[in-house]
Write a structure and sequence with these properties.
This protein is mainly alpha-helical and 276 residues long. The protein has helices at 2-67, 70-108, 114-120, 122-151, 156-180, 186-222, 231-275.
Length: 276
């Protein structure tokens, strides 16, 4: 009876162990499937975000042509035209990067699966995914910022910062590809070419922003006839401007300090997490 009881107990534990192992096998299979597709899905999502951003910019441009005239229309055309060019270049970079990524994985599998490759190079995969997500976010932010600038509620400086962020994200994407790519690969050469196009398009957005900001400021100055001011009024206005300049300089110094502090903390946290 004792032997029978022990046998039953062992049998029960064996069945429980088999059940646990089956659950683990299912989880592993699920992980294989998701890991196998996650990069493709993220690149596809980024490409979709770029297409959506380009379509929205076109909608804003059509509305601007119907709503505005004169300087406002000129600003809208310059800003939205340069943003459209940037989105087109970013889209080409994403597509060529996806092709290169497939080539990298195929050449690095060495008899294994794509999932095996991603697991062996997990840090590279994380960098690739992070860059792709950042590009998609940047595209959406650019649309919102451009819309605000054209409607007169946004700042030109914000547009410049956003376009620089997109350029930085695409540079990160190219850097991830450069680490694993065959430098003689046609796809790699294509990625490098489209990367330069993104840099040039970013410079065009910044140039358009600065030009439109100058035009807008000049139009405001024309509205003020300083020749009609008395000597006392000029002196008072002079002092007010000096105070404003000092306030802005102090604010600039403080914002630069905050930015440096944030970056140091962020990079320190990243280095700690990557090393663990």
């Amino acid at each position: 009876a004792v032997v029978s009881t022990q046998s039953t107990g062992v049998e029960g534990r064996t069945q429980q162990l088999c059940s646990v192992l089956r659950d683990v096998a299912k989880l592993c299979a699920k992980e294989e499937t998701s890991m196998d597709n996650i990069v493709d899905q993220e690149m596809a999502a980024t490409a979709a975000a770029i297409n959506e951003a380009a379509a929205k910019i076109q909608e804003i441009q059509n509305a601007t042509r119907q709503r505005y005239t004169g300087l406002e229309l000129e600003v809208g055309e310059k800003i939205l035209g340069s943003c459209t060019e940037l989105m087109a270049c970013v889209r080409e970079l994403i597509l060529s990067s996806a092709e290169l990524q497939h080539e990298i994985v195929s050449s690095g599998q060495v008899g294994g699966t794509a999932t095996d490759f991603y697991k062996r190079h997990s840090r590279w995969t994380e960098g690739l995914l992070s860059a792709a997500k950042a590009v998609g976010w940047g595209a959406s932010a650019l649309v919102s910022t451009a819309d605000d600038v054209v409607s007169g509620t946004g700042k030109f400086e914000q547009l410049e910062v956003t376009s620089h962020e997109i350029a930085a994200s695409t540079a990160q994407l190219v850097a991830a590809s450069r680490v694993k790519a065959d430098k003689d690969s046609r796809n790699f050469v294509k990625v490098m070419g489209t990367s330069k196009s993104v840099a040039n398009a970013t410079a065009s957005v910044v140039a358009a922003s600065k030009q439109c900001m100058k035009l807008t400021e000049e139009s405001k100055l024309v509205a003020v006839d300083y020749s009609q001011l008395s000597a006392v009024q000029v002196k008072r206005l002079d002092m007010e401007m000096q105070v404003k300049i000092l306030e802005l300089e102090n604010q600039l110094t403080e914002e630069r300090r905050r930015l440096t502090t944030m970056r140091k903390m962020h990079y320190h946290d990243d280095g700690t997490s990557n090393g663990s």
